[in-house]
TrEMBL record:
InterPro entries: SMG8-like. The keyword Cell membrane does not apply. Belongs to the SMG8 family. Residues 600-610 have a biased composition (Polar residues). Keywords: Nonsense-mediated mRNA decay. The gene is LOC127565125. Residues 557-610, 631-664, 766-791 are annotated as: Disordered. One of its GO terms (biological process) is nuclear-transcribed mRNA catabolic process, nonsense-mediated decay. It comes from Drosophila albomicans. Involved in nonsense-mediated decay (NMD) of mRNAs containing premature stop codons. Probable component of kinase complex containing nonC and recruited to stalled ribosomes. This is Nonsense-mediated mRNA decay factor SMG8. Residues 567-578, 646-664, 766-784 have a biased composition (Low complexity).
Length: 967
């Protein structure tokens, strides 16, 4: 025995000097288990008993420390469990990946196993609590203990123990439960009456909780625990502070030192006390004060945990242990079993093996089914939270699936599926909680996806405008349909119709307008310009390969090739310089030859860009409609398809636009008549097109997209995406009233006017010989005799032309309007000023512009038509539009540009959808006012002018090759 007057050792070993002392007790040994919570590093809960281990040990779960004080009948067993802070910390540090729910369930399962052992091998259990209040979670532990004890332990324990001395239940008795609170509330008074009242209140609350949850009953055989009826079972350590905070103690001592009076004040106190009439003045009588101090001191000495425990130990020794714990006892009720140390040690070792050690052995198996269930599925049985969370997740899953199916339409797409799935997940999360929610969400996604794909999935093929097809995916359908309907006009603009959202380029730029042409009375009668298209030579034709159709990509691929060596670079530079020199010499020779020879080529030597001059007569209307329609006739499609289609190079328009906008007149170089005659004769002799032109255009492969300046001349489109038509004479337009509804429907009020454009042209006659001059004057006199009047102003060799131009925009709702500037919609005749037309002709016009119509959302209008009213003058207006969208510049795709006939109303319809090399160019969703050109633009300088071929007569409107400089 050491100086502490007690022995301590680790179970199950027994020291040799302690065994004889325990054997002397015989059948009067009372086993007391100490279990609960602790905060010290040694996990020691025996501080209130003034006991601790001799040697510091490492705490571990399931370890038992024995304490015995000689001269007593009490053997104390200290259980180290997962409720000890040191044990919990050690197990927590061993975790590689921590999941709180699973870790907490494991810790609780281990504590239940230790508690089961304590309930079977102890007469009295002391639960230690570090806080001054009762932890209600202990009630849940008791419920789990009772469930395991009744459902599993009572099944296998009597079978495995056999005939033992612990009785039929395999335990010493229904252990009496005592509660030790190491700390007393700081706000409560530490007097005898206050401490007793607080202990009684705590006992009442604990008793009600355990009774309410059937932890304690009146029958000791069916009761898991026992509480004494007439004895106190709650103890508060009110006078001794366990595990004090050393920092707080140091602070209190510092405060006391700072507030301690100095010596001078003590001398003054002594002087004051000296003035008292007698000793003990203003003090209570000594006898009463001594009596009060003795009662408090006696209570303090007797109010210890050891004295508290011994009163319950004495009940066990006296044999009234059960009678003091249960109100109703039958004569057949098992009594409390007192055993000697040797028998108890034997039985406790067997129980320790069954309840603790075998459960810690991984893969341990037993032939007893109940015991095997205890070893393998105890944690699963105790995890009532998992069952609760699982039921909530299943309930939420059912409601989520029901919500999804109830709101799902017959056919819907991915966006609707995602929205319905998001709503179903919200319903699930409202009901489901815990760790099973994530798995339930995954299952919900699988079930809803299967439900959607089971005949309800939408095709979702995107249209050219980005709208998905609404047809069922599983069922075959001839063409896609998005359900979106647009209002659009025909080629001539007279008739409006409903058009379905296009899914192919052919539907967007060709089929709809052909369908509308069959319904429009005007489209049937108008003279149309035939654009060059693909003419197959056999039935086995196909779309051109990507690289062949778009050679511009070959140049970009060449940039990605690895860099050449220094020698190769030097050689290539020398070769390029030599080639440039040769080209320069050849160019000089060609220029010299051209100066000597008369210029007669495909351009007829008469093309000039149009420039605006400031005219005065804005209301001038050009009347007359005779042979102008025949002048607008063009060659057959079979002849045009065989002509050469070359790429039109972009030219700089900055210089020309600056010079033309200054108001200077346009110089037009006239041809020699003999040259015209020679050209006509040569054309009459050669009826077949040149062979080289037929060889350039492929007859087996067509261009899959629209023609642009980099698409090459070898491929032609399968169908025309542009439309150019003469809708009547110039007299059908009146500048006073604008475009009428019966002629052009759908225009917004005030936005149905064309802009007047005055162009001054100076005719320059070529140098003629005397015979040629006389012959030319004779021909001019004959022409003047045939013409009664001129529909233009002519002053000598100067001509003033009056042209009307309109840039029409159309939105998907069918609203049409003209623009008076790149950033302004025409609002009526008052917006037409002297230089209004210059703003639209000499500037890039945006391809998309916000429609001024009122709606819930802003609709974008697209530049769809260009209206041109030509003058009745010996000149032809020539069109060469170029639309810049992204990195592509789209053109008409013909080398011989269209010439508009005189005194006629022409309308050029632009493509509805633009397609580049490798992608569709979709319109922007929204345009900002400062980025109006970001969606694309029509480049300035699309108009040109050329002299009318008088030798052609009625066929003057035939096409001729033309090259002109952009404005």
């Amino acid at each position: 025995m050491n100086y502490r007057k007690y022995y301590t050792w680790q179970y199950p070993e027994t020291p040799e000097d302690v065994a004889p002392l325990l054997a002397e007790l015989k059948e009067s040994l009372v086993i007391v288990g100490v279990i609960g919570r602790s905060k010290c590093t040694q996990a020691n809960k025996m501080c209130a008993f003034d006991m601790e281990p001799d040697v510091p040990t490492s705490p571990s779960d399931g370890q038992i420390q024995c304490y015995y004080k000689p001269g007593t009948n009490t053997l104390l067993l200290h259980f180290q469990t997962t409720h000890d802070e040191a044990v919990m910390t050690k197990l927590l540090l061993q975790q590689t990946s921590l999941q709180f729910d699973s870790f907490y369930e494991q810790m609780r399962c281990r504590f239940v196993r230790s508690m089961l052992l304590a309930l079977h091998i102890c007469h009295i259990l002391v639960y230690v609590e570090t806080s001054p209040t009762f932890d209600t979670s202990l009630v849940t532990i008791f419920q789990l203990l009772k469930f395991v004890w009744e459902q599993q332990v009572q099944e296998f324990l009597p079978q495995l123990l056999g005939d033992d001395m612990m009785g039929e239940r395999g335990r010493l008795c229904a252990p009496r439960m005592l509660f030790l609170f190491e700390n007393y509330p700081a706000d409560e008074e530490q007097t005898r009456e206050a401490i007793s009242a607080y202990e009684f209140r705590t006992e009442d609350s604990i008793y009600e909780l355990l009774r309410q949850h059937n932890i304690i009953t009146n029958n000791p055989n069916s009761s898991l625990l026992a509480l004494p009826n007439n004895k106190q079972f709650v103890f508060f350590n009110a006078y001794e502070q366990l595990r004090p905070d050393h920092l707080l103690c140091a602070i209190e001592q510092l405060q006391q030192t700072m507030l301690k009076p100095d010596a001078k004040e003590e001398e003054e106190d002594l002087e004051i006390l000296a003035l008292a009439p007698f000793e003990g003045f203003v003090k209570p009588y000594g006898e009463f004060y001594e009596a009060k101090e003795s009662e408090e001191q006696l209570y303090r000495e007797q109010h210890t945990i050891w004295q508290f425990l011994q009163r319950h130990v004495q009940d066990a020794l006296d044999g009234c242990f059960d009678r003091g714990s249960f109100k109703q006892l039958s004569p057949f009720t098992a009594q409390c079993v007192l055993m000697n140390y040797e028998n108890w040690h034997k039985e406790s070792t067997s129980l320790h093996q069954l309840l603790l050690q075998n459960a810690q052995v991984e893969g341990y198996s037993s032939s007893n089914v109940s015991y095997q269930c205890y070893l393998s599925s105890l944690e699963k049985c105790l995890n009532y939270e998992r069952k609760f969370w699982s039921q909530l997740s299943e309930l939420g899953l059912k409601k989520g699936i029901s919500c999804y199916k109830h709101a799902a339409p017959a056919i819907y797409g991915n966006s609707m599926h995602q929205q319905l799935l998001a709503d179903a997940k919200l319903v699930l999360e409202d009901e489901g909680r815990g760790p099973y929610t994530e798995a339930a969400l995954l299952k919900l996604g699988e079930v809803c996806a299967k439900f959607w794909q089971d005949g309800r999935q939408q095709c979702e093929q995107l249209s050219l405008r980005g709208n998905p097809c609404t047809q069922p995916k599983e069922l075959p359908h001839e063409k896609h349909c998005s359900g979106v309907v647009h209002i659009s006009s025909c080629n001539c603009g007279r008739t409006q119709g409903r058009r379905e959202d296009p899914f192919t380029l052919r539907q967007a730029n060709y089929e709809y307008y052909e369908h509308m042409a069959s319904m429009c009375n005007l489209c049937v009668k108008v003279k149309k310009f035939q654009f060059p298209i693909f003419a197959p030579s056999s039935s086995e034709y196909r779309a051109a390969a990507f690289e062949a159709a778009f050679p511009s990509l070959l140049q970009s691929k060449g940039r990605d090739e690895p860099a050449a060596t220094a020698e190769e670079q030097l050689q290539s530079e020398l070769n390029s310089q030599q080639v440039e020199e040769d080209e320069r010499k050849q160019q000089q020779q060609l220029e010299a030859e051209e100066e000597e020879k008369p210029q007669h080529s495909l351009n007829n030597g008469c093309s000039q860009p149009l420039s605006a001059t400031y005219g005065s007569d804005l209301n001038m209307s050009i009347a007359g409609f005779g042979d102008s329609l025949r002048e607008g006739e063009v060659e057959d499609s079979t002849e045009i398809s065989s002509q050469m289609c070359s790429s039109l190079g972009t030219q700089s328009s900055t210089h020309s636009s600056q010079s033309n906008s200054s108001g200077s007149e346009l110089v037009l170089q006239l041809k020699h008549d003999t040259v015209i005659d020679e050209c006509c004769e040569s054309q009459a002799e050669s009826t077949e097109p040149p062979a080289q032109l037929n060889e350039l255009a492929s007859t087996t492969e067509y261009l899959p997209g629209l023609v642009h300046i980099s698409s090459g001349c070898e491929l032609l489109p399968l169908f025309p995406s542009w439309s150019l038509a003469c809708v009547g004479p110039s007299s059908i337009y009146s500048h006073n009233t604008g475009l009428q509804e019966h002629f052009q429907s759908g225009f917004l009020s005030g936005a149905n006017f064309l802009l007047p454009w005055d162009v001054h042209v100076r005719l320059v006659q070529p140098h003629k010989q005397p015979q040629q001059s006389q012959q030319h004057s004779t021909q001019q006199q004959q022409q003047l005799n045939h013409k009664k009047s001129q529909r233009y102003r002519k002053q000598g060799d100067r001509v003033a032309l009056k042209i009307f131009v309109g840039f029409e925009y159309e939105c998907s709702r069918g609203h049409r309007f003209m623009m008076c500037s790149p950033d302004r919609v025409l609002r009526g005749g008052a917006d037409i000023e002297r230089d209004t037309c210059i703003k639209v002709v000499n500037n890039n016009m945006p391809l998309y512009f916000p429609c001024p119509c009122r709606g819930q959302s802003t609709f974008l209008a697209q530049l769809m038509r260009i209206h041109v009213v030509t003058p009745k003058a010996p000149v032809n207006i020539i069109l060469d539009p170029k639309v810049l969208v992204g990195k592509y510049t789209f053109t008409l795709g013909c080398n011989i540009l269209p010439r508009l006939s005189q005194s006629a109303y022409w309308i050029l319809r632009l493509p509805n959808v633009y397609q580049g090399d490798d992608m569709l160019i979709a319109p922007p969703q929204k345009l900002e006012t400062d980025e109006i050109m970001s969606g694309g633009c029509l480049l300035a300088g699309m108009f040109g002018i050329a002299e009318t071929d008088a030798a052609d007569g009625n066929e003057a409107g035939q096409l001729s090759g033309l090259t002109f400089t952009r404005l």
